[in-house]
Design goal:
Distance between the termini: 70 Å
Strand content: 25-35%
CATH topology of the largest domain: Immunoglobulin-like
CATH class of the largest domain: Mainly Beta
Strand order of the largest sheet: 1-2-3-6
Number of helices: 2
Radius of gyration: 22 Å
Structural class: alpha+beta
Helix content: 10-25%
Shape: globular
Number of strands: 8
Length: about 190
């Protein structure tokens, strides 16, 4: 190989490496947006929640249940919708109603090793169909991550973060289930079609 050809090849590889680095840097800059886009009414994806504070005054929402938990946390469930794919998606928000910053309890993740590997989440949540005598656990993706809000962090006093959980859907005739989450009181919620 000639020196001239080698020098040109090295310059070309360096240019490609710089261009790739700049593309990654530009793509990474877009994630620092302090306001998340409004979520659509379709089922949430399995992506990690960024924990941005949600303004409760933005849009009044129906309240299916309000559960009080340990350490002064309050969980408000706003919807439980049956999807055509055979899932039930529960949406709401968790709020630190206390007067000091607090960490989300690791107990909310449940005690299954597969879920615990993926960090703090609401993986310990269940729906109980008393009539059908069945308990439904949070779904997982193919890598074992729970299909629920993950990456939960410490919350400031009065701060709320939006949450979601996906479960297998109970039979079509079942419209009322008991929602349970470790450290919180349980509540009966209604599934909408």
């Amino acid at each position: 190989m000639s020196t001239r050809y080698t020098t040109k090849a090295r310059r070309g590889m360096a240019a490609v490496a710089i261009a790739a680095g700049l593309a990654l840097a530009v793509a990474g800059c877009g994630s620092d947006d302090p306001k998340p886009e409004a979520s659509s009414s379709s089922a949430p994806s399995g992506k990690q929640d960024d924990g941005s504070q949600q303004d409760p005054e933005e849009s009044p929402q129906e309240v299916l249940a309000e559960l009080k938990g340990g350490e002064g946390f309050v969980l408000t469930l706003n919807s439980a919708k049956r999807d055509s794919g055979g899932f039930v998606t529960v949406n709401g928000q968790i709020k630190n109603a206390g007067d000091r910053a607090k960490n989300i309890s690791s107990a909310l993740s449940g005690n299954e090793t597969e879920i615990l590997r993926h960090g703090r989440s609401l993986g310990g949540a269940t729906l109980v169909d008393s009539e059908g005598k069945k308990r439904y656990y949070v779904l997982r993706d193919t890598e074992g991550r729970p299909l629920t809000t993950t990456g939960m962090r410490a919350m400031k006093p009065g701060e709320s973060i939006p949450i979601f959980m996906q479960f297998p859907a109970p039979p079509e005739g079942t419209s009322e289930v008991s929602f349970q989450l470790p450290t919180f009181a349980s509540a009966t919620i209604e599934i909408s079609e």
